[in-house]
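Could you help me review a protein record that somebody else here produced? What it holds is a sequence and that sequence's fold in token form. I have pasted the whole thing underneath without changing anything:
=====
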Amino acid sequence: MTTGLVLVATVALGSCVQWLTGMGFALVSVPVLVLLLGPADGVVLANCAAGVICLVGLAGGRRHVRPAAMVPLCAAAACTVPAGTWLARRLPEPVLLAVMGALVTTAVILVLCGTRVPALRGRAGAVVAGAAGGFMNSAAGVGGPPVSLYAVNAGWTVREFVPNAMFYGVLVNAFSIASNGLPHLSPPLWTVSAAAMLAGSLIGRTLTGRIPEPRARLLVLLLALAGGVTTLGRGVWGMAVGSLHG
């Protein structure tokens, strides 16, 4: 019962912030989902939910997608998704948790700081961001931050970023699901996850335009930072305990 309630709250919150900011489902939900369901199922459930939300959200903004930027981003992601899956399947769970936590924490700090990276400009920057996002998405479920950093360095506005982030989210999550497979959840957990995603999306859609985007984005990043640090701590603790018992 407790797992179900936490799962519902996590998926609903992640779905809400995804609608508000164009990204954020994975950042908010993955740290909690991997602690609830384990790294493999937690990451793939996040891939499934984020992909569906992005697909629905893209319906109203597809005319604003920039193919010249998104084609190299998505092509590069397709090339690195298998590498992320390969790594995630070979690392012990505590190590994988620590890697996930470190990736989320580092990505959030870079986005919070609005880091300017000359290598993330132009077509070459799109390839670098897409490759990093594909690897991170399949390994840890968080492929959005590299694309966000690319958008910052390209000078995109929020209105430009959201539909392009949705487009990228549809493809990179489809690639990740094809590589990782579907999560092994019971029918009741599938049902409550779908219901929570729908409820969170409706709330997010209702709040769109009512909450200042910078405030909503900051909240998402702070929640993600807390989750990343928690997951990192859990992984480091697991490795420390394992080394003592070894």
About this structure: The mean pLDDT is 82. The chain is about 85% helix and 0% strand. The CA atoms of residues 147 and 206 lie 26 Å apart.
